[in-house]
Amino acid sequence: MSNNNVSYNEQVSLESGVDAAQENSSIPASVSGGLFSADYKKNEDLKEMLESNKDSQKLEAMKRIVGLIAKGKNASELFPAVVKNVASKNIELKKLVYVYLVRYAEEQQDLALLSISTFQRALKDPNQLIRASALRVLSSIRVPIIVPIMMLSIKEASTDLSPYVRKTAAHAIQKLYSLDPDQKEHLIEVIEKLLKDKSTLVAGSVVMAFEEVCPERIDLIHKNYRKLCNLLVDVEEWGQVVIIHMLTRYARTQFVSPWREDAVFDENSEKAFYDSEEERKVEQVKPYIMDPDHRLLLRNTKPLFQSRNTAVVMAVSQLYWHLAPKHELNIITKSLVRLLRSHREVQFIVLQNIATMSIQRKGMFEPFMKSFYVRSTDATHIKILKLEILTNLANEANISTILREFQTYVKSQDKAFAAATIQAIGRCATDISEVTDTCLNGLVLLLSNRDETVVAESVVVIKKLLQTQPSQHSDIIKHMAKLFDNITVSMARASILWLMGEYCEHVPKIAPDVLRKMAKTFTSEEDIVKLQTVNLAAKLYLTNSKQTKLLTQYILNLGKYDQNYDIRDRTRFIRQLIVPNEKSGALSKYARRILMAPKPAPVLQSAFKDRDRFQLGTLSHTLNSQAIGYLELSDWPAVAPDQSVRIVEVVEPVKETGAPVHGKSKPGKSSEKFYSDSEEEEEEEEEGSSSEDSSSSSEESESESESEENSDDSNKSSSSQSDSEKKKKTLKNKKLQQQKPDGKDRKQKNGNAVKGESRSESESASESSSSESSSESGSELDSDSDSDSGTDQKKNTRSKPVQSTLVTKVEKKEVSLLDLDDFSPAAVPSPKSSILSPSLLSDLQGLSISPTQSALQASSPVFVPETSHELLHRMTGKGLSAQYRFTRQPCIYGNSMVSLQLTLSNSSDQALENIHISEKSSTGQNIHRFNAIERLEPQASVTVSMGVDFNDSTQAANFQLCTKEDEFSVSIQPAVGELLLPITVSEADFSKEQGKLLGMNESSATITMTPENVSSQSVNRKVVSVANLGVIPSSQENIHRFAGKTVSSGCLVLVSVALKDPDAVITINTERTVMGSMLLRQLKTALTNSDP
Amino acid sequence: MIHSLFLVNASGDIFLEKHWKSVVSRSVCDYFFEALERATEPENVPPVIPTPHHFLINVLRHRIYFVAVIQSEVPPLFVIEFLHRVVDTFQDYFGVCTEAAIKDNVVVVYELLEEMLDNGFPLATESNILKELIKPPTILRTVVNTITGSTNVGEQLPTGQLSVVPWRRTGVKYTNNEAYFDVVEEIDAIIDKSGSTITAEIQGVIDACVKLTGMPDLTLSFMNPRLLDDVSFHPCVRFKRWEAERILSFIPPDGNFRLLSYHVSSQNLVAIPVYVKHNISFREGSSQGRFELTLGPKQTMGKAVESVLVSSQLPRGVLNASLSPSQGTYTFDPVTKLLSWDVGKINPQKLPSLKGSVSLQTGASKPDENPTINIQFKIQQLAISGLKVNRLDMYGEKYKPFKGIKYMTKAGKFQVRT
After folding, report:
1. Which end of chain A has fewer CB atoms < 10 Å from its terminal CB, N or C?
2. CATH T-level assignment (fold) for domain A859-974
């Protein structure tokens, strides 16, 4: 069907005439007459317009052509004229030409080839929008000859710097696949590559391509599983739907069932009232430990229940339905019920899914029963679905309410609905034995209804009910016989007669009487009634021939001369069958068995009973038949496949330095800050380092923290586990130091969170919009910091570094406190936004966007000193005291600034107002001031962040710190080590760069090391505490290398320490010789000092 | 995913088609027309129609059917939600979404559809991204374009497309910075014959109109956030912040948007602001029926009930109605049997009533059921659930915005059974 051409007549004739039209214009006119020639003329002037030199003329022509396409008219003979304009400069014209090309290229393949070179050129355009749209059109024109070109372009675009172009490439994959399925293998390679992409923009599209091209290659997902889970919240909504469906399938193949092992899914319908306690008990007996990855998926999808997109909510609901432990299912209910407020079509789909769910688990939706009450304004199919659900929800407790509601429905003017209600009543009656009689009586009353459908339906339902237990209900049959005279609807009369006949043994006295009455009115009855009368007569004759023989003969005689041939026919047949005579064959012996055969009782059950064989939320489920391309949801595996396949190797070179690795592995977490807040992020970061920290006890921490741990952390803990033992020690040591400042920061943030209103939120948010990258992630530290530090909590964290296991525990507690558990950072280097301060932008460009990694990468600091320096003493500051410290994070205010954290405390007994930095003050340095603090209460303190551009000199920054009343001159004197930012380079690059910075750019000194300083970790520690440098992994044990760049100018600063027992040579290579020598002096002091 | 889209008007003509993959013949719509014929009401067309080779998923909005053609398995809600987005976008661009508006702007429609889907998969559905790609038509721009030959089509990739705040573009500037929030609550209720409430729920939304310069970061807090039982957010709202503190913290999109929709927990009793006294009766054998309605306010917290509109679908056997309203006007459509009474404001001193008789078709039997009465009303300055916004703060920008919050209560699906 995909190559279906236009098939409406007029156009086909027109189209067939196209080629000819170019040679001989008289032919088409003769082919299709007047109407066509008018069209033809019109197209002729469009052609003229397209050939003019004015863009506006061409544009007008193209707009009219698009109008034709939209109406479904054929404009294909304009192809040559249109395709010429493909290279137009006018962007709107070009777009319209693209629209045209995509529509007709398939039909005019040769001519379409003319445009290909234009697209190939455009694929190299510096503007990403143009590159992307060129690829879009190129892949959309469905001309098989260009498959190789497409393949090439897709491959190229999949490594494009712009995530937007890569997204387009992911879309192109599907198009190429549908054009030429032979390319599958190559396309899978591209998909594999794109799956690794960390951009949220690409994720949805590539998973879509995966689903279309190679859904069976589940192995491609393993390595990306955790990433996808973490990215999910930030992916655009359509991508979320696709990813969730894919992950549902994935999880079904990879994890073991969280449901009780002895109960298969379907069997749960009997024990509909699950209570979570029971569940828990069972779990105690058979401990089931959920795979942390399974939990990760559930946790990360949970916030999506709140999405405004109904498709997303439905997708998450089905994910929970198919994957979550039973006792967690209740979360689905509210969200689905909420969707019922949406459009009619949405209601329809949601109700269908609820219907399927409610069969298996009544308890879930029972509290919301009233939401399914029918309104007279609902569309019929909605009403019927609601009815279905209400019936499913019925139980002993609520049946009276439901039946009362049904009574209203039965009277509805919508007769199809009324009939459905009667059937529903019938189902309730069979399901709940307590109300069977009530229902039957109610239904009998309905027999006197005037509406034919209602009566017919009631009789049918009564008939069904009676068939299941006829013996107990002879009185109902009697009652129906009594009502018989009043019932006018022929269908109902016929049904009653059938019932009489069928159960004549239960009503031996009444049945003949009914027959007598019928014999009286036979001639005036409707046809179906007559037929049933004949039937009744026959049955009575067989069972009670003594009383009814004459009656039967009379009726058969009447029937014999009836106008209707059916009745004559039936009469003749019955007579032969029941009345014994010499001619009758063997058949009459079996008359009784033929007529009185026990008929199977019809089963009353929901139409949604077996719907659950399809995955909820799918088209197949809606239609209750398998649609093309439906992917079966597999059963849970009995034994979980290897979990380790999902572990992602951390490729960063700096494995041994805890913090940088750490920061790196979650690049772009800031992008997800839209949902989280920075405090949590900080938390995560901390948590990560602590779980790493406890790598010696990592097994324990892993299992314990299954709910908190994010994927990256667990990777790391396992990877560091595999690291050599001695490294671990180094690590640990280092981490102990890091913990302190980290912890403190976080505390401040917690305080912040509690205080709520402080200015910092605005900042964290504005900065959160600024997205991405590892080095960035640190910066929220500063931005956030004008909060009060919660003093009591501080103690708590201080104790942390003491023991690693303890840390983990503390961590855990806090985590639950902040309700972190459904959140973990996403590893997204999300694309840059222009909200980002422009200076930072250029800096980050290389980091996050390009898949080809640049040699130099900024990394987060290895060590952040905790020491703060006094800025203003409380005595001189009249109660206001200020301390600053260097956070060593890239500054968010400008990338040539050093970020500082200022803690202001009020030790006076009055509140200080309007604390700010004076505008006029600064001495040449560019200072980013913190926003004025409106009021600082006595004994309170607040932490704010600011940025200072020291311009790579250690000259002090002087400025005025002002309160409402006073001004204090203060100055900040940076140590040379604080003017650096750490970077990571490979060892080879380090040597290369070092080679370029020789001669006067190199300064070195030999020192004598004290014995306790010789160990590698103490050297590392000393160097990074003096200067903000990154540690470069070294292959030689006695040489330690560090790299950084100056904050303002970005010059490289390379430090190497070569140990030659007992001496050590410190070498510093940098263009900034002054800084080099100052740094050298400080390092010398630090390394010769013996104190720890 | 979505193969093609056909737009069908009320009279069953296809007036626009768009294909994202190979062309699908419009004859596929015959299956749709069949279903349309079978349906008694326009709303009764099933949303999903299977055909031998395709699946048709349709939505009905503004009396236009948007019929999407699908070839393989896809979550149906995905398509339905998308189609509704398309309608919303058209409405946003052209003010109304009618056949005429779509035909007049067919080029913009085509450009939009081209941007919204690529190969059947949604590409850009955020209105601010689309507006940067394709500028909405205005009279002024049309004039300028015809003179200067400039276009409606943006040349750069919209900034939002790549940012982490795709819903907001950068460089927004206003001279008057203002942020308005409308808290609108709707009461869905079914009242039975005797006037007791069978079911009543409150659903609310907060619609915002934010025109603020730069990149403001807003927080909105409630006096009583516990009232909100189930919420769904615009993607801009930080979910964690809500979870932890019950505060809405967000960088708003530019212009109009729906910030939040919520459901008020069912534990709270819902105040029903109006009552109806009715006496509708048909006698067996008589061709006349009595019809009396009286409306009155209750539990309105002292606010006036306005814009009251009563409508009722009378039984099919009714021929005509001769009624006299004490205020407002009423109409009765003898074809659709729809009675509607535009009451206006309810005056508690003089309750509005509608009295008179209805005539039945001769020979028609007495209707089984009395008609259901649907009521619409509005109450200004009241959120019936008692929800109150505590404060709205802005961070990240220096200016002082003008802030406004409005409350309103409306009837949602408010039905009285008689």
Report:
1. C
2. Immunoglobulin-like (2.60.40)
Task: Show me where the domains of chain B are located.
Answer: 2-148, 178-270+382-416, 274-380
> First-to-last CA distance in chain A?
77
Residue B120 has pLDDT above 90, yes or no: no
Give, in words, the CATH class of A978-1088: alpha beta
How far is A824 from chain B, CA to nearest CA, in Å? 11
CA B300 to chain A, closest CA, distance in angstroms equals 24
The answer for A 234-253 residues in CB contact with B (under 8 A) is 234, 236-238, 241, 245
Reference B318, options B360, B279, B288, B355; nearest CA is: B360
Which residues of chain B lie closer than 8 angstroms to A630, CB-CB?
72-73
Which positions 434-453 of A are in contact with B (Cβ < 8 Å)? 449-451
Distances (CA, A) of A674 to A17, A769, B21: 58, 8, 36
Instruction: State ipTM.
Output: 0.92
Q: Does B157 sit within 8 Å of A127, measured CB to CB?
A: yes
Residue B16 contacts A where some CB pair is shorter than 8 Å: yes
**Residues in B touching A8 (Cβ below 8 Å):** 25-27
pTM: 0.67
Q: Say how far apart CA A907 and CA A881 lie, in whole Å.
A: 7
Which residues of chain B make contact with A245, given a CB cutoff of 8 A?
75
Instruction: For residues A210 and A191, give the distance between their C-alpha atoms in angstroms, rounded to a whole number.
Output: 7
Lookup: tokens for A737 = 């130091």
SS (H, E, C) B141-172: HHHHHHHHCCCCECCCCCHHHHCCCCCCCCCC
B247 touches chain A (CB under 8 A): yes
CA quadruple A469, A471, A472, A476: dihedral sign: positive
**pLDDT tens per residue, range A899-908:** 888 888 887 7
For the ranges A8-12, A167-171, B101-105, B158-162, the lowest mean pLDDT is seen at A8-12
Would you tell me how many other CB atoms lie within 10 Å of the CB of residue A227? 21
Residue B189: CB atoms within 10 Å = 23
Q: What would be the CATH architecture of the domain defined by B274-380?
A: Sandwich (2.60)
**pLDDT value at A738 more than 60:** no
Which overall architecture, per CATH, does domain B178-270+382-416 show? Sandwich (2.60)
Is the Cβ of B229 closer than 8 Å to some Cβ of chain A? yes
pLDDT of residue A577: 83
A405 part of contact set with chain B, CB < 8 Å = yes
CATH class of domain segment(s) B2-148: alpha beta
> Fold identical between B178-270+382-416 and B274-380?
yes
Cα dist. B121→A138, A172, B227, B271 in Å? Answer: 17, 11, 38, 45
Question: Which of A 892-951 lie inside 8 A of B, CB atoms?
Answer: none
3-state helix, strand, coil in chain B (%, to 5): 20, 40, 40
**What share of chain A has pLDDT > 90, as a percent?**
9
Q: Rounded to an integer, what distance in angstroms lies between the CA atom of residue A370 and that of residue B191? A: 12
Helices B76-94, B106-116: crossing angle, 10 deg rounding:
140
> Where do the domains of chain A lie?
43-253, 489-599, 859-974, 978-1088
Contacts of B217 in chain A (CB under 8 A): 761-762, 765-766
3-state percent helix, strand, coil for chain A, nearest multiple of 5 = 60, 10, 30
Q: β-pairing, B2-8 with B64-70? A: antiparallel
At residue A931 the predicted structure's pLDDT band, cuts being 50, 70 and 90, is confident
- CATH assignment, A43-253: 1.25.10.10
pLDDT digits (tens, 9 = 90+) for A1014-1070: 777 777 778 888 888 888 777 777 788 888 888 877 788 888 888 877 788 888 888
The single residue listed with the structure tokens 């069969």 is A359
